[in-house]
Amino acid sequence: MAAMVGVRRAWKQRMAAWQRRWGTEVGLFLRQPLALIGLALIGVFGLMALAHPVLMATVWNRARFDPIVGYDASQTPHPHPPTPQHLLGTDGFGRDVLSQLLVGTRVSFGVGLIAAAVAVLLSVLLGGTAGYFGGWADAALMGVADVFVLMPPPVVLLIFGLLLRLNWPMVALSYGVLSGLGAQAVVVKSHTLVLRNRSFIEAARLAGGGHFHILRKHILPGLMPLLAAHAVFTVVGAVLTESLLSFFSRTTYYLSWGSMIWMGQQSFRWFTLEGQWHVILPPAFALMGFCSAFYLVGRALDEVFNPRLRRV
Amino acid sequence: MARFVLRRLVRGAVALLLFQTLIFALVQALPYDFSAFFIVSPSLRAFIREELGLDRPLWEQYARWMWGFVRLDLGRSFLYWPAPVSRVILSRLPRTLLLFLPAAVLAYLFGIWLGKEIAWRRGGMLEVGASLFSVAAYTSFAPWLGFVLLNVFGWYLRWLPYQRLVNPNVWFNAPVTVDRVLIGLLGTGGGLFAGGLGLWWATRRITDPLLRRAARIGGLTALGVAAWMGWNASGIGPLAADVLAHLVLPLGTVFLLSFGETMMTMRAAMLDSLREDYVLTARAKGLPGRVIRDRHVARNAILPVLARLALSLPFVLVGSLVVERVFMWHAMGQALFDAIEFQDIPVILGILSVVGVLVLLAHIVLDVLYAWLDPRVRYPRGE
Amino acid sequence: MRDEILVDIQHLSKLYPVETGFFTRTNLFVHAVSDLNLQIYRGESVGLVGESGCGKTTTGKLLVRLIDPTEGKIAFHAEDGVVDVATLRGKALKRFRRNVQMIFQDPYESLNPRMTIYDTVAEPLDVQGIGTLPEREERVAELLETVGLTPASSFMFRYPHELSGGQRQRVAIARALVVEPTFVVADEPTSMLDVSVRTGVMQLMQELADKLGVTYLYITHDLAVARYMCQRIAVMYLGKMVELAETEELLHHPQHPYTRALLSAVPVPDPTYKRKPMEIKGGISKPINPPPRCRFYERCPIADDFCRDNDHPPLEDKGGNHFVACYKV
Questions:
Q1: The whole model's pTM is what?
Q2: Cβ-defined contact of A13 to C157 (cutoff 8 Å)
Q3: Hey, which residues 98-157 in chain C have their CB within 8 Å of chain B?
């Protein structure tokens, strides 16, 4: 037995194996123009979210540029069209639109990430358990999913919003619960079912592995690509729903793209008949760009991890 | 097949009852009772409490709630007192359907067609362009998209009427109600759709492609002309035209919001099915590209798209409810927002129930359709 | 060697319920394996032969306790005493897994595509907590070379999709052998492989049996493979064992009409060879609540009323350890 593989050298080969394995998939992902557009947009939004505190600390005067209580008395009337000082102009209350836009990015990221995490966690718990154990667990848990499927998150949240005003983490949480326990759990369940019936699971049982071992080492890694795609699509749904809620003032007051669009639409009626497009277009396009970016990345992930979609 | 349908129906009924139980539990979990919403005299409050059954024990409230749901009795509206909730909702249902159904059907048909085309010509600017446009439309913020279309086409260009259901000047002294005309239009739309399907079914055996195409176009034209003449002869044609003109913008908005998802799903399913060996066989047989695309690839790709439709349908419905609000299209969405504004709890819960029932129906219909198209689904695993 | 029993199977049965109504509890069962008796001796290879759907894979999975039997006992004679496989639980079951392994039919299915070869082969060691990390690596490397994946270092950190079918099956064999089991169930390990690599894998399995003293239950539908691999062959039909004998005895003097039919379907590489073909009617069906008569009655060319009116015949010794379950021979 000459060719012993020492432990010290093994990590290098493991890295190489990982690179070979994920290299092709990363390559396939990056080869899609739509995925690249999506990634670039997410990067831009990430920078925007980071830029706000930096700008507030350095360039922007707090009294004039604060997204909520700022007011620029030097430029009237408000809303004011874009000027070199206020690159996107000001809204009806004299607040800088750009500053608001950047703060809204932060809220959108927060909403999306919380919702995605909650939804993925719940869908794995529910769908994974139902698919893996089957039998009564399956029947009971899928009964739950059948009910949650009947509750479109935006409608349910609009009604929640009437009864108890929600802040954005609560909106994200509720969205995650509703979508994670509904449609996503069903999809996770059917994938778990496929995985469970493959013979490498039987081999793992023969190795002496218990349920925990099999779930951790075989089922969960097998579900990962699906969960990644789900997470990304949940971000889209959650951010759009949050915007809808804050647009219709069904949340506690905080600044987000939805409430900015609402403010912008008000300026159409209150101040001029012509309307102030600079107030309404930035948040609307930001919202569209943000959601499109995540949607495109999700589709591209789908294409990479679903090997039969690959271009030959 | 009958057994499958029965099994699915039972499952659906169980889900519906659980859903109602959950709504009841949610309402109970709220930290206050309904009667406290209104600042009214104690006697009136007592009346409200009695009317809502809030003075009864919990189990009786629950039994009343479930029994009421089974009898389609959802209580009475606060806002339109003493109208029953079911009448408030039913009277608005045709208006929502007139917006929602054509938008959903058009969006699905267009999405499937476009997805098929761009998957067939994979790569290139058409694919990127169409994908970007559809994704942008799909992820647009519904109230904003409606607002933009309304401003551009209604306000600046003045091509189309905007806001509200009808133009009062046209309807002055009209012999019929708006809802009568709406139901007539819904019927016409349904008839045209069914006629189109029947035509496709009847002509599918014609082998000569030119003749088949001629027969189809001719038949569709005849159907259209018949519908037009029928409305003309009825004497309320202008009224219907007014409703249709008001329908264009909201319908266009819902359409734009909805077709992207279907298109992207169809594209992925097409690419999936293009990898199959039978496509290679079809090519080897020397079949023309169009036939391979439509008969071999698209027909198999439709299945996963159908499965996804059931999941996307509630979001189309939500989209149309929101768009109704923007265009002041007085229907279920408007009723929902009014109810939310005036805290008309029975109507809100009623609409939630109706949405649940509609979603459930969509799921059942699509499940059955799917099982009919793909026999593998019908049998429980292990058989 | 021949007299030391390793596995003693007594009245082993597995019934699967057939799903019927939504509310009704079914009383229809598929008798996948019914009343199977077999002794496997230490060091031998027993072939289990039959058509697809006759219950041979179910039998294999029952023996390694991947599925729980409906009835019966499987006494396994481990070094530290006899255990009943049918009722093992918890720690004892985990210990039992060190003694018994299985090689699966499809090497594309039985290796997790997301795990490296090292992780796959070392999984049993990992789960059982055998050895330290360097020891495991050494053991895996050694074993990979034993199964002919040389040099081991170039295979250890590859993924299954980078290997050919034959190489994958070698990995599966290495995984089965890593815990040094005494008994291995091989479920048609060569049937999914190209003909060109089959012999290689079969040779490897024989060498390993000799070297490591492994006992095989070799499941196959191919009599030629069974002849190459096994000392004894058992023939199954619809969940029942119909004939059991030494390999050459069974091939040269088949007695059960079903075995004779199977043999007459084997091509003989001699154009002048003439034999009287054994004709059987119909195809295999599912044994759902089979009536109390010979399971082979419907297709049997020599059956008569006695076969129809009596229960399935018991396995009888016809001399020289040749067991047959038939009233007519």
A1: 0.83
A2: yes
A3: none
